[in-house]
Amino acid sequence: MLYDYIAAVLFILFGLFVPIMFLLTSKLLRSKTPGNPIKNSPYESGEKSIGSSRDLDNEYLPYFALFLPFEIIAVYMIFWAPTARIGSQSSALGSMGILVLSAILALIGYKMISGKNV
Questions:
Q1: So what's the pLDDT on residue 48?
Q2: Where are the alpha helices (DSSP H) in 30-116?
Q3: Which residue in 2, 48, 90, 114 has a CA-CA distance of 20 to 30 Å to 105?
Q4: How far apart are CA 103 and CA 33, in angstroms?
Q5: What's the number of domains the chain is made of?
Q6: CATH value at residue 15
Q7: Which domain, by its residues, includes 45?
Q8: With left for phi above 0 and alpha for psi between -120 and 50, is residue 51 left, alpha or beta?
Q9: Residue 24: which residues within 8 A CB-CB, separation 6 or more?
Q10: pLDDT tens digits for range 94-104
Q11: Which of 99, 72, 97 is nearest to 107 (CA)?
């Protein structure tokens, strides 16, 4: 039992160690000179930016609403369905809830893409 906790802690430490080492290595190897200010401007176009970088459009929201039901929930159902006990009421309610949620998200996504109000 103690072995399981030690293995989990070592896995967490390794998971933290790898990204930290990549960040430190890139900091040590990168150029220290500021470079060309025009080339380092946003989009490397040499033009001053207009507006704020916080002005984000929600143009990708409909595609995200379609990605959830067709990719993530579908894969979840494929891997979850064989492990669910047949005849269990809670598993049947859970799968129906997931399917209803995916249908609602798909409907919202399609209406947003077609330009109609939701």
A1: 66
A2: 61-67, 73-80, 89-114
A3: 90
A4: 53
A5: 1
A6: 1.20.58
A7: 2-114
A8: left
A9: none
A10: 777 877 887 88
A11: 99
